[in-house]
Design goal:
The protein is an alpha+beta fold and 151 residues long. The protein has two domains: 6-97, no CATH class; 100-149, no CATH class. It is built from five helices and seven strands. The strands form three sheets. Strands 1-5-4 form a three-stranded antiparallel β-sheet. It has a two-stranded antiparallel ribbon with strand order 2-3. A two-stranded parallel sheet has the order 6-7. The chain is elongated and about 75 Å long. The two termini are 30 Å apart.
Length: 151
């Protein structure tokens, strides 16, 4: 995988970008059930005509109720898309927490300096640091245009 930040990765593969956020899905599978004042109309509106006609979903965040009108196929399509997104997120998390990224994170800069201080390190600690350094050099620094090591 390319060394891309999580914010840029989410801009590409996030739920909002793929129209899979809860509000985006709800707007495609139903309509909001209103019993209150609508500011855009400037008057109270009661869409009670839908009571009992449709299955309803109540959002926990704001308490709004949506009447669900979508066919089963459309809902199953969203289920498949969300399962795919979950798998993609799991892959990203596994990648972010593996190998040198677990210690150093994702290095995105094109010019870096790594400062090494082994003054009080025991031989065991030195071996661990050396292994981590070789991992980051092979996995991430190889893609960087310039780097310095200072010991």
């Amino acid at each position: 995988q390319s060394l891309v930040s999580s914010s840029k990765w989410l801009q590409r593969y996030g739920l909002k970008r793929n129209k899979l956020s809860l509000s985006q899905i709800l707007s495609q599978v139903g309509f909001q059930h209103r019993k209150d004042y609508v500011t855009t109309l400037g008057k109270p509106v009661a869409s009670r005509y839908a009571d009992g006609l449709f299955p309803q979903y109540k959002r926990a965040q704001d308490g709004s109720v949506y009447n669900l009108t979508a066919k089963k196929e459309l809902i199953l399509h969203f289920v498949d898309c969300l399962i795919g997104a979950i798998e993609l997120y799991q892959q990203r998390m596994e990648w972010l927490t593996s190998e040198s990224r677990q210690i150093f994170g994702v290095i995105q800069e094109q010019c870096i300096v790594i400062v090494l201080d082994f003054g009080t390190a025991s031989p065991t600690e030195f071996d661990l640091c050396r292994d981590a350094l070789s991992m980051v050099l092979v996995e991430q620094v190889i893609q960087i245009s310039r780097f310095n090591l200072i010991r």
